[in-house]
Amino acid sequence: MEPTPEQSPHHAYPDHWEADVVLRDGGTARIRPITTDDAERLVSFYEQVSDESKYYRFFAPYPRLSARDVHRFTHHDYVDRVGLAVTIGGEFIATVRYDRIDGQGRPASAPADEAEVAFLVQDAHQGRGVASALLEHIAAVARERGIRRFAAEVLPANNKMIKVFRDAGFTQQRSFEDGSVHLTLDLEPTAESLAVQRAREQRAEARSVQRLLAPGSVAVIGVGRAPGGVGRSVLRNLLGSGFTGRAYAVNTSFDAGTGTVEGVPAHRSVSEIGEQVDLAVVAVPADRVPAVVADCGESGVQGLVVLSAGYAERGAEGRERQRELVRQARSYGMRIIGPNAFGIINTAPEVRLNASLAPESPKAGRIGLFTQSGAIGIAVLAGLHRRSAGLSAFISAGNRADVSGNDFLQYWYEDPGTDVALLYLESLGNPRKFTRLARRTAAVKPVVVVKGARHSGTNPPGHAVPVSRIPDATVSALMRQAGVIRVDTVTEMVDVGVLLAGQPLPDGPRVAILGNSESLGLLTYDACLAEGLRPRPPRDLTTVASPQDFRNALAEALADRTCDAVIVTAIPWVGEDGEAETGDGEVLAAALREAAATGPAKPVAVVHVEMGGLAQALAAATSTAAPPAHRPSGPGPQAPSAAPGAPGGSAARILAPASDGRTGAPGDPAPSTTRAPGHPAASPGRALAAEGAPSPGRAPVSEAAPSPGRPAPDAGRIPAYPAAERAVRALAEAVKYAQWRRQAATPGKVPEFLDDTIDEHGTAALIGRLLGPDPDPRGRPLTHDEACELLAGYGIAVRPALPAPDPEAAVAAAGQLGYPVALKTTAPHLRHRADLGGVRLDLAGENALRRAYDELTDLLGTPAELRPVVQAMAPRGVDTVVRASIDAAAGAVLSFGLAGAPSELLGDTAHRLVPATDRDAAELIRSIKAAPVLFGWRGSAPADTAALEELLLRVSRLVDDHPEVVSAALEPVVVATHGLTVLGASVRLAPPPARSDLGPRRLPSY
Hints:
Layout: E1 19-22, E2 28-33, H1 39-47, H2 51-58, H3 67-74, E3 81-88, E4 91-101, E5 114-121, H4 130-144, E6 149-154, H5 159-166, E7 171-177, E8 180-186, H6 191-213, E9 217-221, H7 230-240, E10 246-250, E11 260-261, E12 264-267, E13 279-282, H8 289-298, E14 303-306, H9 316-331, E15 335-337, E16 343-346, E17 353-356, E18 364-371, H10 374-386, E19 391-396, H11 405-414, E20 420-425, H12 431-442, E21 447-451, H13 472-481, E22 485-487, H14 490-502, E23 510-515, H15 518-530, E24 534-535, E25 539-540, H16 547-559, E26 565-570, E27 573-574, E28 580-581, H17 585-598, E29 604-608, H18 612-619, E30 653-654, E31 720-721, H19 724-744, H20 760-771, E32 780-781, H21 784-792, E33 801-803, H22 807-817, E34 821-825, E35 839-843, H23 846-860, H24 863-866, E36 868-872, E37 878-887, E38 891-898, H25 901-904, E39 909-913, H26 918-926, H27 945-961, E40 965-975, E41 980-982, E42 985-989
C-alpha cells in the first residue's frame, strides 16, 4: 500500500514493515503501517470494539472517533509517529501506535529516545496473541527509528494488556501513578524476550499445522461429475481412509439437483455448504484457483491443500501466480500446503485423514514424513510399506510456497504421536531457522534428512528461496552440529527411520555380531569398522543353527555388558538333500523377538540373505503374548548338541579376525548405564513389545509418551536389512545420534575468561571508521596492518611481517625482528604456496637472507610482482588454518583444517555454526580426518590444542559480535607444543547481510 501525497515525502512508506504472522490459534494475519487511505477501515474497526475496550484505551467513555481523531490516527511520519494495523480479509482487527516523547512526556523528535505506546484489539480477536505479535513488530520499528524505551499507561483492571507487557521478556519498570499503572519497557532484546518470542512462534506454527492435519471437516474442490480425475480420486481416498469428520464434494459444474457424490453432500461452492469447513483440498486448474481461494476465505476455511500445478515450476509467470496465491490466502488468515502438492495424511485413529493422491493410507505408526517432492514421497511411502513401518503423518508440500519443513519441525517437536521425523528437502527457505528448530527437536527425537539438489548450486523449479554458496559438505557438517542425521539417499532415510522408530538408542559403538554364516558375519564386521563402530569378533552359530540357538545367542549378547548393540545375520538353512531351504521365517522371527523383548534394552538389527519370509515376519505386528519358550525349528534339520563349553548350548565358534586395535576385548569397560535422553536405563528384563503399547525398556526414542488412543506399533520391532552395509550404516547413525543426545544434555559455553581480553566497543568503533559513513555494499578487504589492529581487539596477535622491496630492506627488517627469519612472497598467486618455492625458512644470517632473496626473484619474478616480506621464525609446530565467513542463507560459519593439501586438495575441513561453544571448538579440531597429527601421531609431540581451541573461540566471538566481519582467514596458524603463532591474516568488512532469524516473528515471503 503506497502513501498519499499528504504524507511527508522524505519519509517514504516503509514497506519492509509489512509482515504476515501466525497467531496463537494457528490462523494468519497481516501487519502493516497505517496510511491515510485507512480512514474508513479505522472507523469500521472502532465501531466493532466494545465499550469496555474503548474505556481501557482512552480511560473514559469514548463511543466514536471524531474526524480529528481519525486524521491523527491515520497520518504518520513513520519516524516520530507510527501506527501499525493487523488485518484479516483487508479489515482491521487491531492497531498500535507510538508517539515519540521527551523527558516531560511532550511530543518530541530525535534524539529523544522514548515513545508512548497504546494498543487496541477488537474483542472478537482478543486471546489470539494479536497484541503480543504487535508489540514485537512495533518494538522493532521503534528500535529502527532510534527509540530505546516505551512508556505505557494502563488501567489496573486491564489485566490482559498488563500481561502482554509483563510476558514480553523485555526489561521493564512498573509504578502506580494517578490511578493507572505506568509501565516502562527497555526495547533492547534480551535472552528472555528472544526465548518468549520463539516459544510463541513454536506454539503458533505448531497449531497452524495441527489445524491442517486434524480438520473436523474437509471440502474437496474440483470433484468431477464422472468417475476419474484428481478431485474424485482425492475424495475416494479421503473416504477410503475412514475420515472421522465431515466431507463435502464441491464443483461449480454440479447441477442444481446434485445431492451427493460418492455418498457425501455435493455443492457448487464452499459458501453453499452452510457449515464450517476447516480444510479445503483444491484440485482445479490454476486459473480458477483465485476464485476458489476467495470463496474459501469468505467462508471461514482455515487451510488449503493446493494440488493444482502451473505455478513457480512453470517459470516467471507461474512464480508471480504463486506469490499472488500466497498473498490472497494469507489475507484471509489461511495457510497453504502446496501448490503442486501431492497431499497430506494423518493416521491418528481420531482423525484418519488421507487428503492425498495416495490410494491407500499407510499403517499407523510413529514416523513423521515430510517431502518436497511427490515422486520421492511415493517412493518413501512404498519403502515404508514394504517394511511394514507405520506413519503418524505424511506431507508432500510440492512448491511449499507457505507451509514448509520448518513448520512441521515446530509441530513434531511436541507431537506425542511422532517419535522420528523424516524429511526430504530440496531447498532450505530459512537455513538459520531450520538449524535452530532441528537442534531443539533433535534433543527429544531423531530428525533424519535427505537433501536433494546438493551440487547444482540452484534451487529446484518452484522453490524461490535464497541460494547458499557454501559447499554441501559444510551444510552436512552444520546439520550434524544441530543433531540432524544427514543421509544421502531415501533408502538410507528409511533404513535409519525404521531402526530408530523400533529400537532404543545404543549406549556406545560396541557391536556384537552373531549368525549362521561365517562369511556374512565377516562382511558385517568389516562394515562396522568402515563406519567407525567397534565390533566384537563375529560369533558363528554354523549353518545348522536352529531358531532356539539364535534366541540363546541373542539373549547372551544382549546380556553382555561389553556390547551396546547386536546385529544378527541369517542365511537360509541347507537341507539334508543339499537344497537351500528358507525355513520358517516366522519361527526365527519369534525367537529373535522373544530374546530382544526379555533382555536389556539394546538395539537389535537383522541382516538376511534371501530370507524374505524372515523380513516379513519381523516387520509384522508383534503379538500381545510372549511366544512359547521352545518352538519347532522348522523344516531345517535339528541342531546337534553343543560342543563342550559352547555358550548357550548351541553349536558355536568365535571368529577372530586379525586385531587392528579396534576390536573389543572381554576386558573392555562396561558401558555407561546412562541412556540417551528419553530412554530408561537398561533393566534386567523386558516384556515382549505388544501392539498398542511399548514394552518396558524398549520405548521409542522420543521423550513424548503416546497420546491416548495412539498406539506405538513400531516400538520393539526388529528391523531387517538385505545387506550388511545398510544395517551397519543405520546403526552407525544411531550411535552418532545417541552420542550427540548425551552431549546436548549438557551444552557447551563460551568461557568467561575471554571477556577480559576482548574490546567489543573499541573494535566496533574501529570497524565504523574502516567502513566509513557510506560503505560500499560489496565491502572492502583490510590491509595487513588494519587486519592486525582489528584482530588485536579480540586478543588475536598476528606475527609482524615487514615489507622487503629490495635486499637491503630485507636485511634491515631481519635486523629489527631478529634472526632466524622467514622470507616469503605475498603475491596472491603465490600466497601460502611453499610448494612453489615462495617461502624460505630458517634464514639464520644476512648472507643466507640475501642468497634466498636472489633465488626468489630469479625464480619467480621481480620484487614488485612478488611483494616479499620478512617475518621472524615461529616455533616449530603443525600448520593449520582457521576461517570464518558469513553466508547469506546459512549464517556465520567457523571452519578449521590443516594448512595446505589436507584442506585445499582433500577437503578435510570441519565446520561449525557461530557462535561456537567450548565443546564446538574441541569437536572442530577433532573431527577432521587428519586430527591425529595434532595429537602425537607417529611419536611426534602433541600440539597445544587448548591454545587452538581458544583461538577458535576468539574468532567465533569476533564474527558473532560484529557481523560486518563477513570473512576472516588466519593462515597459517602454527600450533607448537606450547602455544601457537598466527603468521598471516586477511579480513574483509562489509555492511552486514540481513538476518532472517532475528527480529519479530514473520512468515517468509518468496
